[in-house]
Prior knowledge:
The complex is a heterodimer of chains A (380) and B (639).
Chain A (H helix, E strand, L loop, with lengths): L3 H12 L2 H6 L9 E8 L10 E9 L5 E9 L12 E7 L4 E5 L16 H12 L10 H6 L29 H11 L3 H12 L2 H7 L5 H13 L5 H11 L4 H12 L3 H12 L4 H12 L7 H8 L8 H13 L5 H9 L5 H11 L6 H14 L4
Helix pairs in contact in A: 3-5, 7-8, 8-10, 10-12, 11-12, 12-14, 14-16, 16-17
Chain B lengths: L2 H15 L23 E3 L4 E3 L4 E5 L2 E4 L3 H12 L4 E4 L29 H12 L5 H13 L4 E4 L2 E9 L2 E9 L4 E6 L2 E4 L5 H6 L3 E2 L5 H4 L12 E5 L2 E5 L17 H4 L18 E4 L7 H21 L9 E6 L10 E2 L7 H5 L7 E5 L3 E4 L12 E4 L6 E4 L11 E3 L8 H7 L2 H21 L3 H18 L21 E4 L2 E4 L19 E3 L4 E20 L14 H5 L11 E10 L2 E8 L6 E21 L6 E8 L1
Parallel strand pairs in B: 3-9, 4-5, 4-10, 5-6, 10-21
Antiparallel strand pairs in B: 1-2, 7-8, 8-9, 11-16, 12-14, 13-15, 17-20, 18-19, 22-25, 23-24, 24-29, 25-28, 25-29, 26-27, 26-28
Helix pairs in contact in B: 2-11, 3-4, 11-12
Bound molecules: flavin-adenine dinucleotide.
Amino acid sequence: xxxxxxxxxxxxxxxxxxxxxxxxxxxxxxxxxxxxxxxxxxxxxxxxxxxxxxxxxxxxxxxxxxxxxxxxxxxxxxxxxxxxxxxxxxxxxxxxxxxxxxxxxxxxxxxxxxxxxxxxxxxxxxxxxxxxxxxxxxxxxxxxxxxxxxxxxxxxxxxxxxxxxxxxxxxxxxxxxxxxxxxxxxxxxxxxxxxxxxxxxxxxxxxxxxxxxxxxxxxxxxxxxxxxxxxxxxxxxxxxxxxxxxxxxxxxxxxxxxxxxxxxxxxxxxxxxxxxxxxxxxxxxxxxxxxxxxxxxxxxxxxxxxxxxxxxxxxxxxxxxxxxxxxxxxxxxxxxxxxxxxxxxxxxxxxxxxxxxxxxxxxxxxxxxxxxxxxxxxxx
Amino acid sequence: xxxxxxxxxxxxxxxxxxxxxxxxxxxxxxxxxxxxxxxxxxxxxxxxxxxxxxxxxxxxxxxxxxxxxxxxxxxxxxxxxxxxxxxxxxxxxxxxxxxxxxxxxxxxxxxxxxxxxxxxxxxxxxxxxxxxxxxxxxxxxxxxxxxxxxxxxxxxxxxxxxxxxxxxxxxxxxxxxxxxxxxxxxxxxxxxxxxxxxxxxxxxxxxxxxxxxxxxxxxxxxxxxxxxxxxxxxxxxxxxxxxxxxxxxxxxxxxxxxxxxxxxxxxxxxxxxxxxxxxxxxxxxxxxxxxxxxxxxxxxxxxxxxxxxxxxxxxxxxxxxxxxxxxxxxxxxxxxxxxxxxxxxxxxxxxxxxxxxxxxxxxxxxxxxxxxxxxxxxxxxxxxxxxxxxxxxxxxxxxxxxxxxxxxxxxxxxxxxxxxxxxxxxxxxxxxxxxxxxxxxxxxxxxxxxxxxxxxxxxxxxxxxxxxxxxxxxxxxxxxxxxxxxxxxxxxxxxxxxxxxxxxxxxxxxxxxxxxxxxxxxxxxxxxxxxxxxxxxxxxxxxxxxxxxxxxxxxxxxxxxxxxxxxxxxxxxxxxxxxxxxxxxxxxxxxxxxxxxxxxxxxxxxxxxxxxxxxxxxxxxxxxxxxxxxxxxxxxxxx
Lengths: 380, 639
Ligand SMILES: Cc1cc2nc3c(=O)[nH]c(=O)nc-3n(C[C@H](O)[C@H](O)[C@H](O)COP(=O)(O)OP(=O)(O)OC[C@H]3O[C@@H](n4cnc5c(N)ncnc54)[C@H](O)[C@@H]3O)c2cc1C
């Protein structure tokens, strides 16, 4: 279901001019489809409660979820402002919006009664695929007041100017359609889809999925493994080796996953991450450790302290020393590692100096400590 | 009429009708506004005749005239910036058009972004003290907000009626206490006229205009071909209640029948709701709207009841069967009166082209919302000539906020130096408030420096802008560059685990996200920490933060509660805002708490403490008003 083949099919799907693909496209024959009832509260709805909708799941040859669709109305509410037509929205199996379809004899219309042109259909698809579109934050009221039929509050007419969306962000004259469909495509229906697919997958499949070249699929795999409370040694190794090249979003997701797992595995992972070249990874690991739910074993802290001198930023040094202070841990090794920092740049060295203030030092350590003080008095 | 007789008549009028202006002659004032010579007061307790002593002289640094939202913002800013300030307001409540007397919504200049600073503080505070969105309580929220400010004296029911001059400077404002028959002489160094009508400024001789400029004068394409005397009209509003059963309505004798057939030819004039009034029930004037005001008030009532009669009794609006009027305004809200001339006369072209001003101190963003000349008295025209054209937040320059010919006189609100067409955009209350914050701050600076606004603009405009930005005003495209801010000089700035943005953004001078770049730091969770570190010790006694109130989310109070859900408002302290935090300084290697923020409800969080010498400051953001993460836009440190 997540195999290469399908992925390519989707890519091609996206390359075909969507306008053609959608409107003239052969209807999918739901030979292998399942129906789910899902709850959703569309922000365009005035009522403050959830409504039940039918979500269609289309299964692949392997019997696994492959695509989902839902039939919705192009525009919510609003008297006679816009023509309301049925639209079918499609997602892939991890809840990413993929395309929309209209029945053959149906067209989308703008507020002024004009029909959508081809470029408008394409733009709408682009808007729906952008999960960070301005429609995420624009309120229904702004859309409504931007439609030149109004008559409420004094001076409220000025609302008509206020929806300052760029021409690439909204189909002119059809902001309400864009708003309505965007919230369908990017609302909590996506979570429902992820849950359904996640439930259908076993851990082996998820582990394979974690090798997917697209980040969204890897994040999905992690999320679902966490939900299944699955922490195998094999996957641990896979995950750790991947974090070295991961971006911060994925690192955080990985740490999130590990934080929920067995404690020993978590501490082991932190040690391994801190040993890596990737500074971002080290900082994320230390930040995670600083908030970890249980006490950190002294041995872990000692092991971590060996990296103090290698850290390339003050932030890492500060994080680790603060964790050690917080844990009230003390050991000869840690002290020795901290002493080494006294020769580093002033921010790092000063941090170590304050760290060492209440530690018992050997005579030679004390000498270094005092030397630092004499040299840097004005910085303290 | 002899001078004495004239004053006596005027006084009787003022006491009788409370609101009729008492126009005194400023030129020869030694005898006062009221002549007490004939006063026959037998004081029973003392057993003798006496004369009422009802005169008071007040000295202050800054006198603000008019307690609308612009005046409140000006007075509070002046006081906070160290000026001994007096605010006179001629009616019993604060708020101007936004008070319970008129109930105009405190709109934001742009639907995309709210104002921060004083007007935001007030709106948040309103949800704390007035979650029931009562307009009468709102009046008292404003009262509380103003009266708790030290350095600020509020004088309600006090009308400024004329100016005493010293050359081209105002020396004294002569004011009349409507409820206490008292004549006040208020001497000040700086005067800010935020009264909308601008009686005091006019008597001072400040140049002003009324009417519409011709298209040619400033190249304003929305302006009429020929200049004319038209002034945007006044309105009264209503609030209704649902009685749960049909209620009859009988129109008062003075109601003017509503010609709905003619009215509805224009799509803007419609009965879309029966909750809060109709902006197109508007009456203006084509020569002297101030002189015509009482007449207009009567007409508005007559037209309004005519429209309501149509709604209730025509059968066209069954949705109003159970609806009854609960409140109808008696004092019309005013859109336009005098526009006083400054060194800059802001026009439509400036706003539409988003002109950059070196002296920008405030901002707006509303469209050119030019109402129909004639209002409801001319149904042949559309109710509003509504012109698009303001694409982005525009700057308002300081040069448009003070008089070009009276040295120590500034303006804020709907009476500033704008063309009629520019006012059709700048009159929005949020925008007026940003002007007030600017002129109040500027006036305090003028007092400190012993100069006047024109000189402040020429020589110290950057200092004024920096102070405004520090106090959480927003000036589009103008980042803060305050050299005395030690946070900008920190050698390291680090936030605990970050979910979005970067701790470094907090010192980049922009305290809002912009379309092309974010300027915040959001921690992953609460009890987040922000640490600033300097190589060499610095002396610090103030740490100031700016938190998250989501300026893209609306915050105003409405007459029609449906709007809250429709606009996705949260009628409480913004959940994203920091509620509790602590500030620590590292002294000799140990973290010492120097300040605490508790129950905070403002975006700008200022702390001040005894100066400490330190190499690091740590801010612990412990709690928000509900949001899961701590989020900031700015941190500043000062000696
Ligand atoms: C009916 C109507 C609807 C509007 N709709 C909106 C809207 O929806 N949203 C929006 O943002 N804006 C709206 N506006 C515009 C907005 O209300 C005004 O532009 C704004 O209130 C101006 O604020 P201000 O503080 O300058 O003046 P005002 O609100 O007029 O306040 C001036 C104050 O000065 C006092 N005063 C006057 N003369 C004296 C004197 N001589 N001495 C002492 N005190 C004096 C007055 O009592 C008043 O309190 C509307 C205006 C009207 C009339």
